[in-house]
Design goal:
Strand order of the largest sheet: 3-2-1-4-7-9-8-10
Order of helices and strands: HHHHHEHEHEEEEHEHEEEH
Keywords: Methyltransferase, Transferase
Number of domains: 2
CATH topology of the largest domain: Rossmann fold
Domain YtxK-like N-terminal helical: 10-88
CATH superfamily of the largest domain: Vaccinia Virus protein VP39
Largest sheet: 8 strands, mixed
Strand content: 15-25%
Distance between the termini: 35 Å
Number of helices: 10
Protein name: Adenine-specific methyltransferase
Shape: globular
Domain DNA methylase adenine-specific: 101-299
Pfam families: N6_Mtase (PF02384), YtxK_like (PF21106)
CATH architecture of the largest domain: 3-Layer(aba) Sandwich
């Protein structure tokens, strides 16, 4: 990244941070709630909407005057917003499901999608659990830069705060998206797309009544929400389309995996399972992987061999680049033939 881009990221983050702290202090509320208000007004410059005292409003007006949207590209703005959300998780000690997907992982997913869809003129993306929208916008920006495609984008999120952060992030980046503020498991009328991507929430889904009709639901007790979301997502992929999911590395080693594997047969092909570097996780049990699924039908077929492996340390650039080259070769020789 250029020094100029880094300076721009810091500049916009400082605007967001300083105004957020002013709002937080005056209203005596969380940093996250204050950030949501700021993101909602920074483009319009509507200081009155923040309900501040005249002295604070004057300070904010001065900060907002520093922001010229046309001076920034979308990726710079995304990274600045990401920094502000990361600060919110630290300041407010927010629960784990607000954690942002690391950019390196988003870059890998975008890289693989770019290889598979090279030469295409159109592409559509859906994230059924988009959170703050960071993964979705990061991949969008990468495809825009690498393939010169502006994908049609859809995202679903149930959490109020995360949805508002995502909606503001898309708006500020000037990314047109169809966003659904709903519980995905309650059968949202989402579009059928070429690719689904998601950093899946892990754990049990609490409302058993809503899981009726899902083949991955548990026969006893609560069902795994990540299983349900995988099924929902791949049901919304066109024949031959792809799903890229961040999942536990031990996904297929639980008792509940039987239902997931049973659903997969005849519906999707497991094309790859790439463990992320173990150094990113506290222990083996918390390690995650990128799972690549392909919807059956169309020109889809089972790749042979399946792409299995573990990424080398992200710090070892030479080994990391070598692994990406192996993925390229696998795509050309085994996946897309």
């Amino acid at each position: 990244m250029s020094v100029l881009a880094e300076g721009q990221i810091e500049r916009f983050f400082n605007i967001l941070n300083e105004v957020t702290e002013i709002v937080q202090k005056q209203k005596d509320q969380s940093y996250l709630d204050s950030l949501i208000e700021v993101l909602d007004t920074v483009q319009s410059g509507d200081v009155d909407a923040l309900g501040l005292t005249s002295a604070d409003a004057k300070k904010v007006d001065h900060k907002y005057a520093e922001f010229k949207r046309d001076d920034y590209d979308a990726e710079t703005l995304r990274k600045s917003i990401q920094m502000a959300v990361l600060k919110a998780t630290r300041v407010d000690k927010i629960q784990a499901n607000y954690q942002i997907t690391p950019d390196t992982i988003a870059d890998i997913i975008g890289y693989i999608i770019s290889g598979i869809f090279s030469g295409q003129k159109q592409l559509s993306l859906l994230d059924p659990a988009m959170g703050t929208g960071n993964l979705l916008t990061a991949v969008y920006n990468q495809l825009d830069n690498n393939l010169h495609i502006k994908p049609a984008v859809s995202g679903i999120e149930n959490d109020d705060a995360m949805f508002e952060l995502a909606a503001s992030s898309f708006d500020i980046q000037h990314i047109h998206a169809e966003l659904f503020h709903e519980d995905t498991i309650q059968n949202v009328l989402a579009p059928v797309v070429d690719v689904v991507i998601s950093d899946l929430p892990i754990g049990y889904y609490p409302i058993d009544e809503n899981t009726k009709g899902f083949r991955t639901r548990s026969s006893n007790g609560h069902s795994y929400v990540h299983h349900l979301l995988i099924e929902f997502a791949m049901d919304h992929v066109r024949n031959g389309g792809f799903g890229f999911f961040l999942v536990p590395s031990q996904l297929f080693k639980t008792n509940e995996a039987k239902q997931l594997l049973k659903w997969m047969q005849g519906n999707v092909y497991l094309q790859g399972l790439l463990n992320l570097p173990s150094e990113l996780f506290q222990n083996k049990a918390s390690q995650k992987a990128i799972m690549i699924l392909q919807k059956s039908g169309g020109n889809a077929k089972q790749a042979s061999p399946i792409m299995l492996g573990e990424f080398p340390s992200f710090k070892d650039r030479s080994a990391f680049q070598k692994f990406l080259t192996e993925i390229d070769d696998w795509q050309k020789k085994d996946l897309l033939q």
